[in-house]
Amino acid sequence: MTRTEQPFSLILPSDPVCKTLYAEKENKVQSTCEVLRSGMILLRNYLSLSEQVEIVNICEELGIGPGGFGQPGYEDGRKLQLQMLCLGRYWDPQTRYSKGYGFKVPQIPDKFISLVETALEDSQSFIKSEEDQLPWMSPNIGIVNFYTATGRLGIHQDRDESWDSINKGSPVVSISNGDSAEFLYGDERNKLDEVVLKSGDILIFGGKKSRNIYHGVKAIIPNSAPEALLKASMLRPGRLNLTFRQY
Question: Domain of life here (predicted)?
Fold first, then answer.
């Protein structure tokens, strides 16, 4: 992973007074649920404005610290089009989950663990059959990605976790902040559906039918982040995405 002397910051220079004033304005948007397919649930508008701001602040604190944001890549010099922060265990596209990269990987904050567990609990009421049930999961690994307007993530499967986790269908929980993303998913690499993931959404996929889906980020939609979030957090233009799993 490429790291520079100057840490990558999620935050733009801001006026502290302006930031405080906007942080007090809470957007109350009705949360809804979309069952995209068996084992794949989208919780729309799940996070309040204050929760989204808190996520940005926590990721900023971790990201500028030791083991913070960097640009992952391959030995041949190719780079992923994003900035990445690993939590709980180091990962990169070349070595997968390795023991480390010369630095200590931050642990998952309790706030994030609690948020993931609560979202999983809330999703259970929308699962109609026993066959579609999602196994319980308390995350011990996480990846935080920041995409600029030109950022992308190629089509892939999340199959680098332990055999036990994958075999039981332990879900992946994805949290979106900032700009919206065109997200692709499906059983076949060349036959994919598309959904737009917006700031405050939580996407969950797992179980027998959806844990191993192909998925990726087709495009980031510029200037689509909620204005209130940008003013309250001073998040730079782009998409902040957090994904959590159990290794």
Answer: Eukaryota
